[in-house]
Design a protein that fits this description.
By secondary structure, the chain is α/β, with parallel strands linked by helices. The chain is built from 12 helices and 12 strands.
Length: 329
C-alpha cells in the first residue's frame, strides 16, 4: 500500500512536523510503502499555495496524509483516501477580519470536511476542533506524538546549590515573562532552547538571572541539553501537545508545566502543574521541585511510566490502522 505524506516546504529551524513523521515512516509495518512529497514552494501567498495544491493533486497515492500546516492542499485530494493531521489551532489566536475568515475556512473547516479521517495529537485539540467544525467528532482520532528513542534515562546528581532549569521554547505562548518573574532571586541558571527576544534578555538582566541561550541544535544536542539540566520548565499558555514534557520524562528530569490546554493530559501525573497566568503559582511549583527531594524523585519515577504511552511503535501502528482502513474502502 503506497501512502504519500504531504509536507510543507521546510523552513530553517522549523522541523518538528517533519521529524515526527520521519519517525512514523521508519516504524511502519512492512505492508505499507511510505513516500514523502515535500512542497516545492513555501506556504506564502495565493499563487505559491495554488502551486502546492496542484503538486499535491498530481502526487497522490493509495492513501494520502497531509501532515500539518498545509491543510488547504486537502481540498485537491481524493476525499475518501485522505488523512489530515491537525496539530493545534493556536494559529487562530488573535486573528480577526479577513485573516480570521481565510484561516477558519481554508485551514480548518473546508479541509476538515474534505477528508475521511482527521488525526489530532491531543484530546484538547480535538475539543477545540469540534468547536470550529461541529459534527466532526466521528471522523477525529487522537494519536499522540511519539518520543524519540534517543531520549533515554540518564541518572544525574541533582544540583541543590545551583540547579539548571531548562526552558523549552521562547515564543509568546511559552510564557517567558512570567517564568522570569517566578525565578527571580532563586539560585539557579536558566537554559533556553530557542532564540530570546530583546525584551526577554532585558528582563533577564534586570532580574540578574544567569542564563544560556541555545539555538539551531541537532536532536542529539537537544538530548544532551535535557541530560545536563535538573528541572524542565514548560509553563505555556497554550499547547497542542507538549512533547518536551514526555522528552523530560524519558530522560528522567522533573517537570513543571501548566494546568491548562493539553499539558495535564500529556503529563499524566508526571509533572507539577501550575497556573501559567499566576507568577506565584509558577514560583511555588519550581520551589517545590527544588526543595522536596522525595517529591522530585516521585515525579521522575512517574515520568518513566508516563513516557511508555508515547512509544513510537505504538504510535506507528495506530497510523497504520488508519491507512489500512482507508485503503480497503
Amino acid at each position: 500500500m503506497k501512502v504519500v505524506f504531504f509536507h510543507r516546504k521546510q523552513a530553517d529551524g522549523n522541523f518538528s512536523i517533519e521529524a515526527l513523521f520521519q519517525q512514523v515512516r521508519n516504524s511502519l509495518p512492512d505492508d505499507i510503502d511510505p513516500k514523502m512529497c515535500e512542497m516545492l514552494f513555501y506556504s506564502r501567498g495565493f499563487f505559491r499555495r495554488l502551486f502546492c495544491c496542484l503538486q499535491a493533486f498530481f502526487s497522490q497515492g493509495e492513501v494520502n496524509h497531509v501532515t500539518g500546516d498545509i491543510h488547504f492542499v486537502t481540498l485537491f485530494l481524493r476525499r475518501n483516501k485522505t488523512v489530515l493531521t491537525i496539530h493545534d489551532l493556536g494559529f487562530m489566536e488573535g486573528k480577526s477580519g479577513l485573516s480570521y475568515f481565510i484561516l477558519k475556512w481554508f485551514w480548518i473547516v473546508w479541509p476538515a470536511k474534505h477528508c475521511k479521517v482527521i488525526t489530532v495529537i491531543s484530546e484538547a485539540t480535538k475539543n477545540e476542533l469540534i468547536r470550529y467544525v461541529p459534527g466532526s467528532a466521528s471522523k477525529i482520532k487522537v494519536i499522540y506524538n511519539p518520543v524519540s528513542d534517543l531520549f533515554r534515562p540518564l541518572a544525574k546528581q541533582f544540583n541543590k546549590t545551583r540547579p539548571v532549569i531548562l526552558q523549552i521554547g521562547t515564543k509568546h505562548n511559552k510564557n517567558i515573562d512570567r517564568l522570569l518573574q517566578a525565578v527571580k532571586g532563586l539560585p539557579c541558571v536558566v537554559y533556553f532552547l530557542g532564540k530570546l527576544e530583546r525584551k526577554q534578555v532585558q528582563l533577564l538582566n534586570q532580574f540578574s538571572i544567569s542564563y544560556k541561550e541555545y539555538i539551531n541544535l541537532s536532536t542529539e544536542e537537544v538530548v544532551e541539553l535535557y541530560r545536563s539540566c535538573d528541572v524542565v520548565s514548560f509553563v505555556s499558555t497554550v499547547e497542542g501537545f507538549g512533547l518536551p514534557i514526555v522528552e523530560a520524562n524519558a530522560v528522567g528530569r522533573a517537570v513543571v508545566t501548566s494546568n491548562i490546554s493539553s499539558m495535564p493530559e500529556v503529563a499524566g501525573g508526571s509533572a507539577h502543574l501550575v497556573d501559567p497566568f499566576d507568577v506565584q503559582s509558577i514560583r511555588v511549583g519550581i520551589q517545590k521541585i527544588l526543595d522536596d527531594d522525595a517529591y522530585r524523585e516521585q515525579l521522575i519515577k512517574n515520568g518513566f511510566e508516563n513516557a511508555k504511552r508515547f512509544d513510537i511503535k505504538q504510535i506507528a501502528d495506530q497510523y497504520a490502522g488508519v491507512y489500512r482502513k482507508l485503503s480497503a474502502q
